[in-house]
Amino acid sequence: MAQYKSELLRLLDERGYIHQLTDAEGLDALAASQVVPGYVGFDATAPSLHIGSLVQIMLLRRLQQAGHKPIVVMGGGTTKIGDPSGKDESRKLLTAETIGSNIASILKVFERLLTFGDGPSDAVVVNNDEWLGQLGYIDLLRDVGPHFTINRMLTFDSVKLRLDREQPLTFLEFNYMILQAYDFLELARRYDCRLQMGGSDQWGNIVNGLELGRRMEGHELFGVTTPLITTADGAKMGKTAAGAVWLNEDQLPNYDFWQYWRNCDDRDVGRFLRLFTDVPMEEVVRLDALAGSEINAAKIVLANEVTRLVRGEAAAKLAETTAAATFAGGGLGEDLPVLHLGPDGMRIGAALTELGFTASGGEAKRKLAEGAVRFNDEVLSDPGQVLTLDEGAEARLSLGRKKHAILKR
């Protein structure tokens, strides 16, 4: 590990957040001498972020833990355009009302993970529509446009990916990098923001922003990116066969959220404890060294700690209790996902897909053929079977040893 003077970079380095730094020595000196306001931007394309965004939220938490000021930038303006980074196709354009509703929903998670207020290191939330929505198009072109060349913009991965695959990149999306760069300039003006942080796919956008701030107003700005977070088997963080792992309870039940972490690959436990929890490093090292069946204790710590931070103490305790009742006692834990059957019942394949246990009817058929599906303790194999219950009754539907749900009538 590098030898940093500032608590901020020591903390980020020790826990595995640093992928790229624009000027490590300059940022280290600044963070060692004063409170540094730093931001991460989040577009509001859905009512919840998923765990692929959690590392960026934790970056803001680490910034605050090191005594600096987090700025949460909600992309009320940029969401109207859509970030092309890492996307194969254009996003559907959202209305202002939908974007506003999404922002209100997304912020619930930040309220758990950051301390907001008026103090020097208290977090603040800003909406980039405050300034982007006021920009006159001609003024923007005249003032900011000369600092961007089409030649260079065409070299960015977000543009090259779309062009290489012969997928359309709209002129609207092409402007996204200019507006994100302008965000950094405006935040420097309004909040003396000196640092932008983001995932590795944001490196070009971050560099654009700090160069714009230097060219237009002589600001000394800095950037940090995190590595692309993948699971040990190479899958992108936040995606499962059943869909995204959402941070908000409205999009994913607490038990399912807890189970995602409890079921992670043994090889990921130590890294995830570093990135997504406040467990002290000495304890992380001890837990990461556990082997065989003992690693399950570390996974439970991971699941409890992440769920406590993101969903609250009560959610973590209930999920753990439910898991213990389900696995050890064979009972029906009260926090399991629930599916209500109508008087005519539901086909087994539809029930599995509705619960998110399988991604499609085809996958449900395969799991049934493998003997992996149980209704209470009875193994089911017929994809045409209809599950029915008497009025007021309930039963357990299981896929393998790790996925369980309560069926009710």
What's the shape? globular
Number of helices: 18
Query: What is the number of beta strands?
Result: 15
Distance between the termini: 57 Å
What ranges have pLDDT less than 50 throughout 5 or more consecutive residues? none
CATH topology of the largest domain: Rossmann fold
What kind of sheet is the major sheet? 6 strands, mixed
By CATH reckoning, the class of the largest domain would read Alpha Beta
Secondary-structure arrangement, i.e. CATH architecture of the largest domain: 3-Layer(aba) Sandwich
CATH homologous superfamily descriptor of the largest domain:
HUPs
- Overall tally of domains: 3
Structural class: alpha/beta
- Spatial strand order of the main sheet: 1-6-5-2-3-4
Q: What would the average pLDDT be, to the nearest integer? A: 88
% residues in beta strands? 5-15%
Main location: cytoplasm
Binding site for ATP: 239
GO molecular function, one term: RNA binding
Function: Catalyzes the attachment of tyrosine to tRNA(Tyr) in a two-step reaction: tyrosine is first activated by ATP to form Tyr-AMP and then transferred to the acceptor end of tRNA(Tyr).
Protein architecture, described:
- The protein has 409 residues and is α/β, with parallel strands linked by helices.
- It has 3 domains: 220 residues, 3-Layer(aba) Sandwich (Rossmann fold), CATH 3.40.50.620; 75 residues, Tyrosyl-Transfer RNA Synthetase (Orthogonal Bundle); 71 residues, Structural Genomics Hypothetical 15.5 Kd Protein In mrcA-pckA Intergenic Region, Chain A, CATH 3.10.290.10.
- Helix content is 44%, strand content 14%.
- It has 18 helices and 15 strands.
- The strands form 4 sheets. It has a 6-stranded mixed sheet with strand order 1-6-5-2-3-4, with helices on both faces. Strands 9-15-14-11-12 form a 5-stranded mixed sheet, covered by helices on one side.
- A hairpin with a 2-residue loop joins strand 7 and strand 8.
- Helix 10 crosses helix 11, helix 12 packs antiparallel against helix 15 and helix 12 crosses helix 16.
- The relative contact order is 0.10.
- The mean pLDDT is 88.
- One of its GO terms (cellular component) is cytosol.
